[in-house]
Amino acid sequence: MVHVKELSIETRLRDCGLRPTRQRIALADLLFAKGDRHLTVEELHEEAVDAGVPVSLATVYNTLHQFTEAGLVRVLAVEGSRTYFDTNISDHHHFFVEGDNEVLDIPVSSIEIGNLPEPPEGMEIAHVDVIIRLRAKKNR
Amino acid sequence: MVHVKELSIETRLRDCGLRPTRQRIALADLLFAKGDRHLTVEELHEEAVDAGVPVSLATVYNTLHQFTEAGLVRVLAVEGSRTYFDTNISDHHHFFVEGDNEVLDIPVSSIEIGNLPEPPEGMEIAHVDVIIRLRAKKNR
DNA sequence: CTTAGTGCAAAACATTTGCAAATGT
DNA sequence: ACATTTGCAAATGTTTTGCACTAAG
């Protein structure tokens, strides 16, 4: 049924030098089928298990790191304890809802950053992350 | 000798509802004496021990969290594993040197952010973090 | 004295790793 | 068949917690 999609994901994995194993295909499906997502390892693992793909937690960790190296996903540093992975690798920024620990995309076009400072000698800019931290507005 | 400074730190702590204990004073001294700093718990602990204040790691954790709640320091989310604490609580941004895991301040004045998107319904902006990730420039 | 703070060791998490068994090519 | 990948369980690294002991007011 979802065979067309799986084929293309298999190709993508192969292009990255990753063997398209059952687990990797299933994880990639979950990651990319539903559009842009922000997930912890734990969340993805649970989704996979719920979807009937009993992959181990260690494999989810390993797979997400492989995907990161392959440039399929990106690591998000928003909160100390858990690592978030972002399936949207295009240039964009994030809302982070404190308390809920929820991450939302901000289209890059909607933010203008000017006057970026010169990086120190011998350094170049790898990436600019903007995180807008949100809290519930207290209604009084 | 450094008594004037210690007195004022004692007052600051007291104002935050924190008893100025030996350990807290020593840690606050290390944090604030040398200007703006970006430290992990481990680093601060080592500094304290080196300075002849044999505080325990757990106390450094507890103290930094208390300082954070009191608004004396700020948590920096730059890198997944370790938590950085920033002694500069004014509005500013950061360079993060990947590989070195080093954090550098960027004066806020030098970056202009325009077109900030509207926060979702019922939310307000708590803080805007800009992290410019740097990598060593490859000289070719 | 009384209460809050500290240190230690153990617990709790998140993440990584080693190795035998399973899978992909 | 052969190399890679997986799963498990154990190891690691970081942070938190429980509780007896110590220090501050």
UniProtKB/TrEMBL annotation, chains A, B:
Compartmental location: Cytoplasm
Biological-process GO terms, alphabetical: negative regulation of DNA-templated transcription; regulation of secondary metabolite biosynthetic process
GO cellular component: cytoplasm
Top-level taxon of the source organism: Bacteria
InterPro entries: FUR (IPR002481), WH-like_DNA-bd_sf (IPR036388), WH_DNA-bd_sf (IPR036390)
Family of this protein: Belongs to the Fur family.
Official protein name in the record: Ferric uptake regulation protein
